[in-house]
């Protein structure tokens, strides 16, 4: 009786209660992302988001218990939205596969049905539809990156959308101290629609592997560049301290910078005492530091060029434009600092400049 009572309680309080069998992971050796099984016509597919696949590379589709789902054919991508799918063997998950449904209006009840990673349990997050676009839905909850690729269900338990993923954005302050740049995470609150006609293309036609590599590398450099950038912005005449982790990509620049600046802490105070008498060494230090600043600014410029590839889908174009705008704003900021360096003596730079506090 107790079991029956608990079951009745969930039926009454959770009208959307799909079977666990339709939930899967898209996984490699190191990580995994959400997915689900749904029926489209006579075939069943494992669905996820393109954003979820960007950091995976080669993957397998696995159930919650860890068994491998047998797939057929190759990965397909939506040309106009953030959806990826791969067909699974005929008969596999046929009974548990979700049916594709629809929403009737803004404000409709919905549920985000995802797998919690690494707990390996399913979760249902109630929400509402906040907007209905041509290829995307707005939902009233902000989803974590781990939920990217999860299903959005309507009140009938049918799948109507695939959860997308948020993105990082540079936040640039007006002051020039060590808190000049922060990296903000813009959480996701949209899902790609499954209830509209979708143009499916191959990963080769989309150039997905190249695009995913460039976007993944760009996102990684954004995270790694901020600590170094903040230190440099506050005072470009200091050696990079050991507590700032330098990536392989930035390693050669950092080693050269530290080699050239290792004696600046004794030279610059002497220049301050007699800038006219020590004009030659002053100009030499300024030119050398300015040259390294230009080389450092070439990193975001390089990312800008990579973000101007011929993206083949609207989703990749949208994501590329977000990264392009991020690096463009950083490049403009660094150009302003480099111009400032051309007119200022090294001793005038202060990490605790007015407008903020050292972090």
What does this entry look like structurally?
With about 350 residues, this protein is of the alpha+beta class. About 35% of the residues are buried. The protein is built from eight helices and 15 strands. It is about 35% helix and about 25% strand. The longest helix is centred in the C-terminal third of the chain and has 28 residues, at about 280-305. The chain has a seven-stranded antiparallel sheet with strand order 4-1-2-3-6-5-15. The protein has a six-stranded antiparallel beta barrel with strand order 7-8-9-14-11-10. Residues about 1-20 and about 355-359 have low confidence and may be disordered.
Rg from alpha-carbon coordinates: 26 Å
- Sheet with most strands: 7 strands, antiparallel
* Uncertain residue ranges: 1-19, 354-359
* SSE string, helices as H and strands as E: HEEEHEEEEEEEEEEEEHHHHHH
Secondary-structure class: alpha+beta
Overall geometric form = elongated
Q: Helix amount, in percent?
A: 25-40%
The order of strands across the largest sheet is 4-1-2-3-6-5-15
Q: Number of helix segments? A: 8
In terms of DSSP E residues, the strand content is: 25-35%
How far is the N terminus from the C terminus?
60 Å
The total beta strand count reads 15
Average of per-residue pLDDT values? 87
Short summary:
The protein is an alpha+beta fold and 359 residues long.
